[in-house]
Amino acid sequence: MSHALLKTSHTHADDPLQIAAELAQRLAATANARDQAGGHAAQEREWIRESGLLTLSIPTAYGGQGADWPTVYQVIRILARADSALAHVFGFHHLQLAGIQLYGSAQQQRRFLTQTVEQNLFWGNALNPLDKRTVATDADYGFELDGIKSFSSGSVGSDWLTISAWHEASQSALIGVVPSRQHGVAVQADWDAFGQKQTDSGNVHFNKVSLPSTQVLQAPGVKATAQATLRSQVAQLIMANLYLGIGEGAFEAAREYIAKEARPWFASGVDKAGADPLIQHRFGQLWLKLRPASVLADHAAQELDRLFRLGAAVTAQQRGELAVSVAEAKVLAHQAGVDVSNDIFELTGARSTSAKFGYDRFWRNVRVHTLHDPVDYKIRDLGRYALDGTLPEPTAYS
């Protein structure tokens, strides 16, 4: 990746950014073919496991690498340039680990994070807060789970799942963790969206699944602390970096195509497409969409890392100010990813739409993922803050 926007600095063989760049190059070789095929990327997920990057965000006290959040997000962005579906799976793995650190007791953190390092576990998600079809009923040992969870990213092929379930008695949800292969858990590989095809985001079914109290990270009826609500900010910034990575990947693909494949338009008066002043002008416009989004995403990552390290000392005010920074980054990344992945075709021309290039996957992937939660509500939150200083209300999406 020679372009200045996409450069990554490498210094040591064990540098996670170098490892990510090498993994991304490996994934890129088959990204188009796998996107067309869909299904479960079992081999490629093993490459991620073998890379050692699954322990990146785990504190050194539990045997992990103790990387800061800016580094984790850079890795997600590097992978997303090549394969946003597997970058999504990787990012959501670290989201589950963040949840354990934010919700879990000291004993739970030591148990699950140490176990993740020792067994090189891959975590999946079944914590869709808007889907209340999975219910938890009280049992002597804790709770019994029954129902379905949709949009369960990374569930296929995972070792453990973070789950949420509705507790009718308290009219609230609980959060817990269960092994993916536990009796009564059935992971269904039925994701059929037109983008992000290999995110393993289908349904998970629970049939009389035992959830011991030792695996409940947040009990029903317990109000989340300001620290615990950082989880949504971790998630939102994962998405921002996915969108940025897709936009940067599309930008680089278009740049290379124009340099190597594109023919100049007959009326341009130039002998190569890259010398066309109109194409240069439009590329400058795409650059100006990606650059500010990147700057804001990096700033938000620094702020998140600072608050994450404060632990229980995080205040509601600090959390709210972080939510503003993350919303700024997410909105610009959303717009940049969608616009760049769409506009490149006006610059690369008709022949670039051939299936052999698969450039449409950038737009399809970002278009599907940016529908995760409505961007207009982020802009509304930013408008409220700009008008009277109202901070975003802590929810699973803000």
Automatic annotation (TrEMBL):
Location of the Acyl-CoA dehydrogenase/oxidase N-terminal domain: 23-117
UniProt entry keywords in alphabetical sequence: Monooxygenase, Oxidoreductase
GO BP annotation list: L-leucine catabolic process
GO molecular function, one term: flavin adenine dinucleotide binding
Domain of life: Bacteria
Statement: the UniProt record of this protein carries the keyword Oxidoreductase: yes
Gene3D superfamilies: Acyl-CoA dehydrogenase/oxidase, N-terminal domain, Butyryl-CoA Dehydrogenase, subunit A, domain 2, Butyryl-CoA Dehydrogenase, subunit A, domain 3
Domain annotation Acyl-CoA dehydrogenase C-terminal: ranges: 238-373
UniProt name for this protein: Monooxygenase
Organism: Duganella margarita
